[in-house]
Amino acid sequence: MKAKTLARIAGLAIAAAAGAAHAQRVSWYVGGDLVQLETKVTDQTGVPPIVTGSAKATSLRAKGGLHILSWLDAEAQFIFPNDETYSTTAGVSNSVKTSVFALFAKPNWNLGPVNVYGLVGIAGSHFDFDGAVVTGDRGKTMSDFAYGVGAQYKVNRNFAVSLDWTHYGKKNFELIGLRGGLDVEVNAVGLGVNYTF
To answer: For 73, what's the count of Cα atoms within 13 Å in the CB-facing half-sphere?
Structure first.
């Protein structure tokens, strides 16, 4: 319910900004990043084996957006799934494969050739778990409020190099027969390039 409300608010804000920009020239951009995606798993069950740990996977992120106003963009991102171990318990590797899709409003400010920006929106993440505590359905999904900060350096009129940090959400997943469940949090640091048409 919370995720649907956030999606509606983000959609209305982007639509309002797009309406205000009807007299301005609108441009598009696409980009790609190499990201260090961290899926942090915290075992809240208190029952051995405790499987707390962080899966740090190197992956690719595709992104594209629309320059709506001089200070506001709308951006979509997709992080391709990658499998990584977050802990090892009694000789069993506990791993998770994480993929992310996110939509953001992206306010930004130019400081000479450097553009500093924030990201505010909603993200949906899918997890495929494998290991000691997985029971029943191994696939889990979450949607949550997402945010981040970053900067890009304009190499020329079309190309820019970017660096950012993004929080894609946090959720508790219940485990059958165990109280507390697993807290799962997703963050990423990305370094990439953008091309503006």
So the answer is: 23
